[in-house]
Structures are given as C-alpha cells and as structure tokens.
Amino acid sequence: MRSLKLRHLRIVLAVSEAESLAQAAERLHVTAAAVSKALAEVEEVFGAAVFDRGRGWVRLTPLGRAVLASARVVGSELAGLSDVVQGLQGGYQGELAIGTKAVSLHPFLANTINAFAAHYPQVRISLVEGTSKHLRDLLDDGRIQLLFARLSPDIVHSGLQKAAILTDDVVVAASADHPLAGRADLDWPELVGQRWCLPVPGTLMRDHLERLLGARRLGLPQQYVETSDMTMVAPLFRLGPYVTLVPRRVAEHHLKLPVGCILPLDVPAATDSVGMIWNEALPTRPTARLFRELVLRQLADRPAVQAPSAQAVELSSLTRS
C-alpha cells in the first residue's frame, strides 16, 4: 500500500468515468500507455485486476469498485482541503456544482444563489440539469455537491440526506384566452380532450397526472406537446389554447395573466415534496456546506416557502425502497 500514489487513484477515477483508457488519457492529458502502466502498478499493489478489459471497453471488478469508492472519498477530502486553504487565504472561491430537477424550486433557488453570491462573490456556481438517474449518479460520484429535486425513491437512497423545502398545491393552468378559462363547470374528461403541454415522463407532475387520470379510468391526452420547461410552455400559452398541470407557485410565477390563468378545478395535492439532497457518504466541501447552511437559514427566516403545514424542515436519512 505504501507504493500507492494519488495519481493512481486519479487514474482509476478517470478510467471509471470515461469507461475507456484512451478517453481517460485524453482527459488527463497523458498517453494511453501511461494510463495502462499506472493501472498495472495499481493492480500490482492489490494483487488483482481493478478493471476487466475488452476491445474498446473497461468494466470495474469488485476490487475496482472498492478502490473507486476510496478514490472518491480521498478526492473529495483533497478538494475540501483546497477550499479551506483558499478560504483562509483570500476568501472562498472555485466552483460549486448544483443539480436541479424541480421547476417549483427555481424561484427559491434563485434567491438563495443571489444571497450566497453577495457573501462569497468568488465562488462560481454551476447549475446542472439532466434526468433523475443522471443527477443521482453525479451526486453519488461527488461531481455535484447538492441536488434540488423531488424527494422520491428514484432519486434518493441510503447514504443520501434530504431537507424538504416545500410541498406545493397542484393546479391546472390554461392559456389566458382558452375557451375553458372562466368556466366553473369543468371536469376531467373534457380536460383530457384539450391540447396539452404534457409534463415529461418521470417528473412529479407527470406521475401525478397519470395517477389522477387512472383513478378516473381516463387515458392521457392525445393532443399534446411534451415538455416541462416553463420557458417553452409560456410561449406556447401565448400562441394557442393549451392546458397543463403544474405546482401552484410555478403557475403563479410563469403562467399568470396575461400569459395564462388557473382553472377553477380542485386538484388533489401531490404526495411527494421537493427539496435539497446531498451525499452523506462523501466529505462535504466547504462551499457546499456554506450553501446548504444558507438554504436552511432561508427556510427558517422565510416560512412562506415552506410546505402549507408550516412544519419544520425535515432532515433524515432515507433507505432504499
């Protein structure tokens, strides 16, 4: 073990992420031969293969997965130490990567980012989007430090912690000049026959809509544009008669008059909440810790952004379902 070097761990990380010796070499700005030699040195230290290899592919062995887990922890510890040193010498700086997968949290997240920038102007914040699985994998690997998303089993698992921020009412919104706007006698069969901005599969609103329609023995709308991006939904609302299912705060922020309106229809609340998630298994970088603490202070100081029940922020470990 004394002959194991930090560069060996960096090589294992790079190869695991790239899934190719050539691509890992390109990322590290070294030759493929140098990567292969370093892996041979690692395998000599442990006396067994770290990767299974084939033509154009590599795959971690059980030993390799154990080495990778330690490499991630060591990498996070070193990154955290670098942040601390920089913070002590000249103020916190560097990059804080935050995943986002909850439109209803965007106003709250924007306010928090603005407040954070006022205190730590040298920290560059990078917002990362993607599928739930992609963002969860990034959080597991330490490539994002915080994730703002739906607190559901497809994202959270053992080792992750959460802070619930809000559970929002759900509404059906329509274009401002939609024929259904202002009507009081609405029902779901009539709504299903309209043209929809349909939430994309895997999102909280899509799952909620499917449950609502399934309970009424109704299928999904047949006329739709499939998107959960409010920067696309709002222009569509201006151009034609569309309806969509959204959290109330999203409708009030993005789809208010003269763009759209909330239809007078009682919609059951979604069962999931949305909030902040972080990886307890990896060391928390100081910039991520500072941002997380600011989020919790924002919640304590601004009860309006909490769930309607006004309960305290929930902090708990989650187990895999």
From TrEMBL:
Coiled-coil stretches noted in the UniProt entry, renumbered to this chain: none
One CC-aspect GO term: protein-DNA complex
Gene Ontology molecular function: DNA binding; DNA-binding transcription factor activity
Keyword RNA-binding appears in the UniProt entry: no
Assigned keywords, A-Z: DNA-binding, Transcription, Transcription regulation
Keyword Transcription found: yes
SUPFAM superfamilies given in the database record: Periplasmic binding protein-like II (SSF53850), Winged helix' DNA-binding domain (SSF46785)
Domain HTH lysR-type: 4-61
InterPro entries: LysR_HTH_N (IPR000847), LysR_subst-bd (IPR005119), WH-like_DNA-bd_sf (IPR036388), WH_DNA-bd_sf (IPR036390)
Family assignment from sequence similarity: Belongs to the LysR transcriptional regulatory family.
The protein's name: LysR family transcriptional regulator
